[in-house]
Amino acid sequence: MVVRVLHKTxxxxxxxxxRRGLGAIxxxxxxxxxPAGLPATTQAPQTPQPTxxxxxxxxxxxxxxxxGLVLVPVVVRxxxxxxxxxxxxxxxxxxxxxxxxxxxxxxxxxxxxxxVILQDLSGSMASxxxxxxxxxxxxxxxxxxxxxxxxxxxTFASEGLQVEVPFTTNTSTLSQAIANWxxxxxxxxxxxxxxMPQISLExxxxxxxxxxxTDGVDNASRLTPEQARDIVREAQLPTYxxxxxxxxxxxxxxxxxxxxxxxxxxxxxxxxxxxxxxxxNGAEDLQKALTAILDDVRHQYVLGFSTGDGAxxxxxxxxxxxxxxRRTVVFRRGYKGTPPAGTRAGG
Length: 347
Fold this sequence. Notes:
The protein is of the alpha+beta class. A hairpin with a 2-residue loop joins strand 1 (8-9) and strand 2. It has two domains: 72-107 and 300-337, no CATH class; 113-298, von Willebrand factor, type A domain (Rossmann fold, 3-Layer(aba) Sandwich), CATH 3.40.50.410. It contains seven helices and 19 strands.
């Protein structure tokens, strides 16, 4: 059985005309691959059979429409600050190396956001004050809300992922939830990451992002890191990762190998989805990272282009910004879907 969920826009679940600007969100279908039941039998078994624990469904995203609007959040840094006064004409968008017209453009710094906070509550988070740092992450965002901001809070440990607080603007509900956190059990990090897009679909704002708080340990996932980040990338969900004592993803041993393998996986998740990874070692690191994340999402530009008919596949995405000064441009690396409108079908 396939369960399909469409993006919600302006509080209603509906199909969207891709020509209506930012209100036309790319339609994605979320499906759960349910395990098949065992065939019925009328003959009793000869010996008692052990009870089989049902496996949880594997989350997947599938494209269900051939036409839509792809939104590309972009952050442009200039030196120590942000390039805040750019216009549509300053941007160049390429798909698979070919220029594509930017049909919609937004740069409001006060636009409300729908934020998913995914918290690791597994046993490895019990040490080093990690849970208190995690609570401070939520407190930081709640202390800086803008009108219309909404948050959904989810946690994961041995029992799988739990959506503790669905999207809400009620900050007291979120504050009460974090007070009861306790660390326990094993970690299925990648399985939990793959569920973030489903949670994000319930948000009401075009501007969306996720914050993952974890130490990076995974000892129970059925999905690989590659599978999990592909699901998040296809869902157009920028993900910012706070790696508590997870280390530097670029540090190498004398033999030239990665020292912090968890950090490398977390960094790839952030980079491929258009977010950023931050290795956290103490309160000062955490405060700097949270300030940087909030600056990023408040100073986003959002570019949009239409897709047409054709084969559904992964398309490489590039964004360039005009200007002589040195700038850093952060964006996601591509999208899975049909080609941009006006290109040859199947191209």
